[in-house]
Amino acid sequence: MPATHTLTAATGRALDARRALLARLDAEHTDACRLFHGTVEGRPGLTVDRYGSLLLVQSFHDPLTPAELAALEAFYADALPGLELIYNDRSQTNSRIANPLPPDRQARAETRRECTEMGVKYWIQARHAGQDPWLFLDLRAARRRVMAEAPGKSVLNVFAYTCGVGIAAARAGARHVVNVDFAESSLAVGRDNARLNDLPVRLRFVKSDAFAAMRQLSGIGQPKVVRGKHLPPFPELEQHRFDLVFLDPPRYARSAFGVVDLINDYPALFKPALLCTAEGGTLICCNNVAQVDRDAWADQLSRSARKAGRPIREMEWITPEEDFPSPDGKPPLKTLLMRV
User: Fold this and answer.
1) What is the pLDDT of residue 329?
2) Secondary structure of the chain in HEC code, one letter for each residue
3) What is the pLDDT of residue 268?
């Protein structure tokens, strides 16, 4: 069977498997979902995501051939008419987009569009100064849970990126929301997302290294000089504990304030996040590294909490929804809700 037929057959099976999910999502005002999760649906490294009117196709292992891309365009034009397909080849080093687009298509790729999730509006753009989409779809289950938890609560969203969790919490009725991220460009999209929605509260956006922010909010404190070396400037924050803390760090990052390492040292992040959480509050942590065993990770967090004198009273896994199938029940994204 030609490769194009194999690919369209796989995307067809994936779409059929999602019919019931798509109907449910439509009923709750959601038009953003993964339509093809190639890792487990027949083409490793290929993803097809819908964001409103945008159909974002991305390849992370091998680029699509011109014939395969044409076959996908024809398939989705027939199956889901009215959507515009943009293809990003991210199979090169560091997942940077490698394929140039014709000027008119490039302009369309750089055009902002709205998508909606559970009635919350978000901006999306197929191509922008960064690499990743402005809304991570595998976190929908976590945003759903945050919306259920948030009414009347104070919420801290750390590594907020474009602030999707914070926007969702505010829309659901949180009384106070603080978003922390080191990238002003991401927070700028978050501010635009806030303006896009009719939110009952004003959100706070803090441009800061996560360690510096959490150490201050938790009461640990962040010195300005360490071992005789002046640290980069950071916003000064008063100690404050939150009813709900959401922590979604990248796999690895290094700054003058500390090292983010989800494989070897998650507790370095977990402890200050835990101490930012009020007694009787809820801490939700994410780990997106596939090689990390979820039970070993949960045990590590439990031990770290006991050592900090803030034992975990209850744990609950939040798993990605059906558009991110996981035959072995071990999705790469692990999200753990903890009552502390």
Assistant:
1) 86
2) CCHHHHHHHHHHHHHHHCHHHHHHHHHCCCCEEEEEEHHHHCCCCEEEEEECCEEEEEECCCCCCHHHHHHHHHHHHHHCCCCEEEEEECCCHHHCCCCCCCHHHHHHHCCCEEEEECCEEEEECCCCCCCCCCCCHHHHHHHHHHHHHCCCCEEEEECCCCCHHHHHHHHCCCCEEEEEECCHHHHHHHHHHHHHCCCCCCCEEEECCHHHHHHHHHCCCCCCEECCEECCCCCCCCCCCEEEEEECCCCEEEECCEEEECCCCCHHHHHHHHHCEEEEEEEEEEECCCCCCHHHHHHHHHHHHHHCCCCCCEEEEECCCCCCCCCCCCCCCEEEEEEC
3) 97
Q: What is the pLDDT of residue 253?
A: 96
| Domains of the chain and CATH, by start | 3-109 (3.30.750.80), 137-339 (3.40.50.150)
Instruction: Kindly give, in sequence order, each residue whose CB lies less than 8 Å from that of residue 153, ignoring residues fewer than 6 positions away.
Output: 169, 174, 175, 242, 243, 244
Exposure b/e, 284-312, CB count within 10 A at least 16 = b: bbbbbbeebebeebbebbeebbeeeebeb
pLDDT on residue 93: 84
Per-residue confidence (pLDDT) for residue 2, from 0 to 100? 67
CA dihedral 60, 61, 67, 71 (to 10 degrees): -60
pLDDT at 32: 98
Contact yes or no for 301/285 (Cβ under 8 A): yes
For the chain, list residues with pLDDT below 70: 1-2
Q: Give me the residue label for tokens 């034009």.
A: 77
Torsion angle of the four alpha carbons 106, 108, 109, 115, in this order, in degrees rounded to the nearest 10: 180
